[in-house]
Specification:
190 residues, Rossmann fold, single chain, alpha/beta
Length: 190
Amino acid sequence: MMIALIILGIVILVFGAVLVVGPPYVPTLSRQVETALDLLSLKPGQTLLELGSGDGKVMKAAAERGLKVVGIELNPFLVIISRIRCWKYRKQVTIIWDDLWRARWPQADGIFTFMLQRQMERLDKRIDLWHEKPVKLASFAFHIPDRPPKSKYNGIFLYEYKKKSVLKSKKSSKTIEALAAKAVAKATAS
């Protein structure tokens, strides 16, 4: 009985600690997964980045469509579950156990996330500093303040980020990473 309580306490602690840093785990409904992937309209071989990849449901659905997928998840229990869920697609799916705000994001053609409203402005700034080529963002349930979505359907907001300006091309990736870290720290402080 005591061991069961200790294990339960650890699970609650891990899920609770994740709330401090990133989005909570709430499973995305199948209908919204399909809508998001349809709106992103990525082609087989393109890359989807999932921020807060949870139990792997979105990653698996994307891999089934022939996409390469990178998921970033902080909760170690969900990382294990998603690795099991995506095992069949392990050559297409990469799962990174890390804080999505601190992790180095690989370049991608599309992004999917299910964050909280309070995190959306910070996400918008991070994407602006990160992307080197045009990228689409599908966000379930929450919108980016002061950025009109290209479309909205079935609870999914679709945003497009155009190619970066000359400033981006003149900076090294390390400089951009440093600028992104400063912007994130500033946004977090305010």
